[in-house]
Design a protein that fits this description.
Low-confidence stretches of chain A: 1-12, 14-23, 117-140, 211-233
Strand content of chain B: 15-25%
CATH architecture of the largest domain in chain A: Orthogonal Bundle
Mean pLDDT of chain B: 63
Structural class of chain A: mainly alpha
Order of helices and strands of chain B: HHHHEHHEEEEEEEHEEHEEEEE
CATH topology of the largest domain in chain A: Arc Repressor Mutant, subunit A
Oligomer: heterodimer
Largest interface: A-B, 96 and 84 residues
Radius of gyration of chain A: 19 Å
Radius of gyration of chain B: 27 Å
Order of helices and strands of chain A: HHHHHHHHHH
Structural class of chain B: alpha+beta
Number of helices of chain B: 8
Helix content of chain A: 55-70%
Distance between the termini of chain B: 60 Å
CATH class of the largest domain in chain A: Mainly Alpha
CATH superfamily of the largest domain in chain A: Winged helix-like DNA-binding domain superfamily/Winged helix DNA-binding domain
Number of strands of chain B: 15
Mean pLDDT of chain A: 73
Shape of chain A: elongated
Chain lengths: 233, 316
């Protein structure tokens, strides 16, 4: 597991501050909400969605790199989860199950989308819009943070879908490799491999962003990711 | 071995960093990186990639998208619940809605004229493929109601309850800000014509028959000092029905208004906090997003001056 992470492990099943649900529902665990949904409670699933919607949205948006597609993918995923809740076997966290459905819906939407024309063929072909020359080493202002986001978003589009999905979960959202593996339905080794290859491919696109900006974004800034720490996840 | 003769390439170094290369090869790589400034620099840059990715703030789900998905889920819940029964039998979601026509269509699917074919849950297919032809009469009914008479709830003095079943049932739809359609099944929502001749829409959902409460998403951030003028501005503006309120929100709205059907409920913000603003012609209430009939969670309310609502609520 990567230590410097902000994301809550998907293995937990505790309420995380939902808004917009019925009275008392916020205090229920995800498993209990799903059980109530299966028993016919018309609002339980809505509470689940509200509770996790931002993280599910982040997964969908970063995976498909298009707000409209992400909205469609998330909607499809939530309806699918609503209808197929009985398929949840309870051997993982509800959030892991939801994330997996969202990732599958996102990748499915990517497969149905026409192939992208932008490809990466090496340093000399990095588009200027992505390379973002002249980025200051120390980014502390909001505009600079927005620039980083745009650069990262653009760079992520260059990755194969499965590498991007793995990196989104592990590096961007901070999920442990084991959780990401369960969400993606592959082995932990495959997740590590996809992440490693993705990072290597992103290198020419992001090397202008120096990593010493203090503590912005999803997770606190930190030093390197040691092989031992990631390998142990 | 890729690049091992001279310098390992970035992918090999990334795999090494990920703990994927061990044994003798890993030891050789570690020794090489320790003694090679070029590879050490590449190794450091790889670490910076992860840090750069982690530095990007996670986005929040936009309110219009949240409203659209909530609407879709409410439609699903309405479809599976037997009329008049708050809790359905435990023959649950796997078979929910089987045999009725309720479906949510995304903007892109509608544009392409194709049914949703999302895989969704691993190994699954949509149990109920949409039939686009079904949307045409539904849209016609909705537009007829919206243009011809407006939604009942936009009219003052409309009856607050409409439970009589109609002999001639027809599906009605709601529309999302992105153009997604909600097409409730005929057993759960039906246009009716009461004795006074006013066209209306009655919905029989999980909590029994209830008026439809229209939800819009104006995007407004209402402020304490300008709440009244902001609401009155919304009343004057043409509005697009974003969704139909869930049974609990409908019950909350009617509880707050004392049974007066709201002109609309705005899923918006108040003092930057997500809220519902329940608007009648005479007063507006700001309630928390957890509002229910039993616990309305009224934050504030403000009287309104009568303003023209001629614009009504229309389909997008």
């Amino acid at each position: 597991m990567i230590g410097r992470r902000k994301a809550e492990p998907t293995g937990t099943d505790t309420p995380t501050g939902a808004a917009g649900a019925g009275p008392g529902a916020d205090g229920l665990s995800d498993h209990e909400l799903l059980r109530r949904h299966l028993a016919g409670d018309s609002e339980a699933f809505g509470v689940l969605f509200t509770r996790h919607r931002d993280r599910l949205w982040a997964v969908a948006l970063r995976t498909v790199c298009d707000p409209e597609d992400a909205a469609d993918a998330l909607q499809e995923a939530m309806i699918s989860a609503f209808r197929r809740a009985a398929d949840f076997r309870g051997d993982s966290a509800v959030t892991t199950w939801l994330h997996r459905i969202v990732v599958n819906a996102s990748l499915d939407r990517l497969r149905r989308r026409p192939a992208r024309t932008v490809t990466w063929a090496g340093d000399e072909n990095v588009p200027e819009s992505v390379a973002g020359q002249g980025m200051p080493a120390q980014v502390t202002d909001p505009a600079g943070a927005a620039d980083i986001r745009l650069d990262v978003d653009a760079a992520l589009r260059m990755l194969p879908d499965h590498q991007r999905a793995a990196l989104v979960l592990v590096d961007m959202l901070g999920y442990p490799v084991a959780d990401a593996a369960e969400i993606l339905g592959v082995s932990a080794g495959t997740v590590k491999s996809r992440c490693a290859r993705g990072r290597a491919r992103l290198l020419p696109y992001l090397e202008h962003l120096r990593a010493n900006q203090p503590g912005t974004g999803n997770r606190p800034g930190a030093g390197s990711v040691s092989p031992q720490r990631e390998g142990g996840a | 071995m890729r690049g091992q003769a001279a310098h390992p390439d970035a992918e090999v170094l990334a795999e090494f960093r990920a703990g994927l290369i061990g044994g003798m090869r890993g030891r050789r790589l570690a020794a090489h990186v320790a003694g090679c400034s070029q590879c050490a620099a590449t190794d450091a840059r790889l670490a910076e990639v992860s840090t750069a990715l982690a530095s990007v703030p996670a986005p929040s789900l936009p309110d219009p998208v949240a409203a659209r998905i909530s609407m879709a889920l409410a439609a699903e819940a309405s479809a599976r619940a037997p009329a008049g029964s708050p809790i359905a039998a435990t023959d649950h979601a796997a078979s929910a809605g089987a045999g009725n026509s309720q479906r949510v269509v995304t903007r892109r699917d509608r544009r392409h004229g194709s049914p949703i074919r999302g895989r969704g849950a691993p190994g699954g297919r949509w149990p109920r493929p949409v039939r686009p032809a079904m949307l045409v009469p539904a849209a016609a009914v909705f537009l007829l109601l919206a243009v011809g008479g407006g939604l009942l709830l936009s009219r003052p003095g409309a009856p607050s309850r409409q439970s009589a079943p109609s002999a001639a049932r027809a599906p009605a739809i709601g529309m999302s800000p992105h153009g997604g359609l909600v097409q409730p099944g005929p057993d759960h929502m039906s246009p009716t014509t009461p004795a006074n001749g006013s066209p209306s829409i009655a919905a029989s959902g999980a909590s029994g028959a209830a008026n439809l409460v229209v939800v819009i998403a104006s995007g407004a951030d209402y402020r304490r000092g300008t709440l009244r003028s902001q609401v009155e501005t919304q009343l004057r503006k043409p509005r697009r029905a974003t969704s139909i309120a869930s049974p609990s929100l409908s019950a909350c709205a009617l509880e707050v208004t004392g049974g007066t059907p709201p002109v609309f409920v705005d899923a918006a913000r108040y003092q930057s906090r997500p809220v519902y603003v329940i608007v009648t012609h005479l007063r507006a209430w700001v309630v928390g997003t957890g509002c229910t009939a039993a616990s309305p969670d009224v934050i504030t309310s403000v009287p309104l001056r009568l303003v023209s609502t001629g614009a009504g609520i229309s389909a997008p």
